Amino acid sequence: NDDGTEFIRIFYAGPIRSAGGTAQALSVLVADYVRRELGINRYIPRTEEIERCVEEITKYRTVANLQYTPSDEEVRLISTNCPICIDGEPTEEEEVEGYRNLARIETNRVRGGMALVIAEGMALKAPKILKHVAKLHLDGWDFLNRLVTKGASDDDGSTVIEPKGKYLNDLIAGRPVFSHPSMPGGFRLRYGRARNTGFAAAGVSPATMIITDSFLATGTQTRVERPGKAAGISPVTGIEGPTVRLFGGDVMRIDDEKEAVRLHDRVEEILDVGEILINYGDFLENNHPLMPPSYSFEWWISELKELAGTEAVDKMADADLKNPDQELALELCDRYGVPLHPKFTYLWHDISIKDFRTLSEHISLHGRVDDRVLLIPNDAGVKGILETILLPHRVVGGEITPVKNSPSRASTPEALAIPDPLPLMRCVGTQPFHKRLIKNCPTGGVDDLEEQNVLEAIFKISGIRVRPRAPTRIGARMGRPEKSDKREMKPAPHVLFPVGDTGGKSRLLTQASNYIRSMNAGIGVIPVEIGMRRCPSCGNETYEYSCGCGARTEPMLFCKRCNIHVESRTCPKCGLQTSSARKIDLDLKTRYASAFANLGERDNLQSFKGVQGMISKDKSPESLEKGILRAKHGVFVFKDGTVRYDLTDLPLTHFSAEEIGVDIDTLKRIGYECDINGLPLTDKSQILDLRVQDIILSIDAGEYLLRVSHFIDDLLVKYYGGVAYYNASKRNDLIGRLVIGLAPHTSAGVLGRLIGFTRASVGYAHPFFHAAKRRNCDGDEDCVMLLMDGLLNFSRSYLPARRGGWMDAPLVLTTRIDPKEIDKEAHNIDIMEQYPLKFYESASDFANPKDVEDMMDTVSKHLGTEAQYESRFTHQTSNIAAGPLNSAYKTLGSMVEKMDAQLALARKIRAVDADDVAERVINSHFLPDMIGNLRAFSRQKVRCVKCGAKFRRPLLSDTCPKCHGRVILTVTEGSVKKYLDTSTRVASEYEVSEYTRQRIELIGLEIKSLFESDKSKQMGLLDFM
């Protein structure tokens, strides 16, 4: 420091991205703890160092991706107050323009590690850091409170938490917004956990998925306003769906998936997108204040038991308390003082007292009841009020017709038909209830009310309590679509065997085996860099792992600097690291033919691809035989020699046999004897506890792994001379087989057992399994591979030699999950059947989740006991694969088509500002794309279409000097201007800012000046007519 004291500096490298934001941030906290223990002073930054961080993070955002880009003020806040110096090595070629050559910063290039830790660690994970700060009793971190949304006091002294719009940053075309921050009509917060939610996964009704044009599917990631940054979506049939207005004017709530499909094309406006189910554990993990919940049945029944007594409620077994009729709902209010049932509780808090008076007056003057239906004239203002409070009604003729039947249109004026109207009429103080007003109600009824709060007015005029139906809305937009697809390198090879440029741009081994370097050269002799080995028995030099004499070969280590063979990994003369890689001329033609002969296979493969070159230290190749068998069965190899399949992670704690396509006998064979209640397993619909290392994959994954099993069996028999292991002829033959689950940012696989398949494009597994992989379920995706594939074909010899090359590789295998050793986020999952009444009351007061932890039953309270493997859930779901199987984002065609669908949905949802969506898409997607491609066009390389060689500058001739193929540009005119017309059209159709319009116009002029000739053109008289 400038005062002569020392400080701690952490030097972050590029691969810190794979650690995740929480781990990045906590590393800074750990350093501060060590600093205090050692008595070292805090970091005192200079002004130019602070401003350097601001510029550097902004520039890093232009060359790489950030999950969250903090504002300049947030970067200054962190850089100024953080007691640890966050530094890093240069990871990008880009250099800063200002604040260069600083004494305490070694480089002028952009430091990716520093940018990631400040942006995705400190700024994004501030709530989690504060939770650990409090636990460690550290001071000096109070500045992070300014990065966390805190409750502010309203004029009446109540707590208000401001809307958060971070999730709308970097909006991408084709991925719709479902609700702007905390907007009426957005997702209504409901607390609880279904068997397929929790651990950062949220639940929505399958009807919501359908009505929102199928952009939401099982596994689709959503960026959410709170409590975390994102959530994976699971279908939950036990919560409420969307409320819509049909083209005829009818307003109804749709909870059933089949009804949603039937009515989808008739929806004119989505008044409310429905509920979103989020468990308490996610608020606890993110250290986010509890938000007031929607008034739901589980809250109401808790209040009824509190007021009437559990015994009295149990005696009501014959009554349908979940779906009571209007008379029962009012009777319970009057007898026990319980708030009005959620079924008849409308969103009164969304209207003003003036609107309330208007509605009351309209019903009092013009309403009449017949056959349990209230009929009022169809006044536009009153209908708008009914739509705002989400009151179901139908537009009918002047004659009263039963709402449940299709009304016959009459020539009389239209009316609004409201079924079960007594609770509504009681709330607005109309006949027949005006004589039953409580004592302190003004004699003039509604008109004399002085209250400005509608809920207080209802209580005063009706004598019944009405809870706020939806005090918290959760803003959300679509993130990544769900994934269920094979893992491939680009281009996708069948074998890790180098062919250089001789296989063409597709790396075809067939083509390489017929390569002729010159007129006098042999056929199929190719130049490659490959790891050489020597047989210890006969001294034969080869690149194969096994010698022709049957002995295992050993690497021939070589020092490139001294040009000598050595026996150790370090050269004794110069100290350089040695390698077995040598450049040789390889007779591929002979080896290619012998590989087919060794396997007894015919050379009739449609495609057989290798790699251009090996990127491992010793450049050790795979045997060609493995590639032949992979190509035969249509599977592809990854960088470590394994075959993988990627799936979006979703949690699952319970399942039924019919959901996973497995019969009862098979489940019993693999150990499932009883259901969740301890009853013997006899029916496919019974709910069972999922074992923590059992997984359920998509049907597509099952079909791919079936092909992998055929490859493994062929390999064992034809290459290794053993016996087949899987012997699987159909997908379900893999039930009970072991697999490896692996997250891309780790090097430790987790052993799992395959027990079934789902129609959804996801991988369902217990939260403990995902946590053991160091993942949660906020939209992350991981891979699975067959255990035998990992044991047979994985090798460290294939892993890249570059930094971070050993990540995403099963270097070790966790064979047994100990819940005490997994990520603590899984310990915060609640495992209750019913949240206590005190929880809902505390949440209504914005309580800190830590303050209610004692009353909540979470996994952490059962660690080390048998109960740690047992759980319950609060909400039922009938099918874990309900709703669309794939997001519309994956099924729609071009990006323009996706964007048009995105904006069409924005116009349809009441909670979304379509103009804002249009402007955000232009500013965060289309304009940066066009600007980036303009820059890239001026700096582009040229590429040979035949061999794929790239050159920094256009060649004097238009042919490749290596193979005489045609040379083309790598950035085309079409890629530069592909979004120009679309941006212009969107800007004209929507109310975007004048600044945005001018930016589009300026970029259009730049594109025009670049691609259109400035030469004067001969013009005729007709050009002026």
Q: What report would you give on this structure?
A:
The structure is a single chain. By secondary structure, the protein is an alpha+beta fold. It has six domains: 9-149, no CATH class; 168-245 and 252-293, Beta Barrel (Barwin-like endoglucanases); 300-400 and 413-436 and 451-474, no CATH class; 509-625, no CATH class; 645-653 and 690-824, Barwin-like endoglucanases, CATH 2.40.40; 913-1023, no CATH class. It contains 30 helices and 39 strands. It has an eight-stranded mixed β-sheet with strand order 5-19-8-9-7-13-6-18. Strands 28-34-31-33-32-35 form a six-stranded mixed beta barrel. A hairpin with a 2-residue loop joins strand 14 (368-370) and strand 15. Helix 1 packs across helix 4, helix 3 crosses helix 4 and helix 29 (980-989) runs antiparallel to helix 30. The radius of gyration is 33 Å and the shape is globular. Residues 399-412 and 433-443 have low confidence and may be disordered.
Reconstruct the topology from this structure.
Blueprint: E1 9-12, H1 21-38, H2 47-63, H3 72-81, E2 85-88, H4 112-123, H5 126-136, E3 151-153, E4 159-161, E5 177-179, E6 187-191, E7 201-204, H6 206-211, E8 221-224, E9 230-235, E10 243-246, E11 251-253, H7 257-263, E12 267-272, E13 275-278, H8 280-285, H9 297-308, H10 310-314, H11 326-336, H12 353-366, E14 368-370, E15 373-377, H13 380-388, E16 394-396, E17 415-419, H14 422-428, H15 454-462, E18 473-474, E19 476-478, E20 484-486, H16 509-513, E21 525-531, E22 533-534, E23 541-542, E24 554-555, E25 558-559, E26 564-565, E27 581-587, H17 588-599, H18 624-633, E28 645-651, E29 654-655, H19 657-660, H20 664-669, E30 688-689, E31 694-698, H21 699-719, E32 738-742, E33 748-758, E34 762-765, H22 767-772, E35 781-786, H23 787-793, E36 812-814, H24 837-844, H25 888-891, H26 895-908, H27 914-939, E37 942-944, E38 950-951, E39 967-969, H28 973-977, H29 980-989, H30 994-1011
Helix pairs in contact: 1-4, 1-5, 2-3, 2-4, 3-4, 18-21, 27-29, 27-30, 29-30
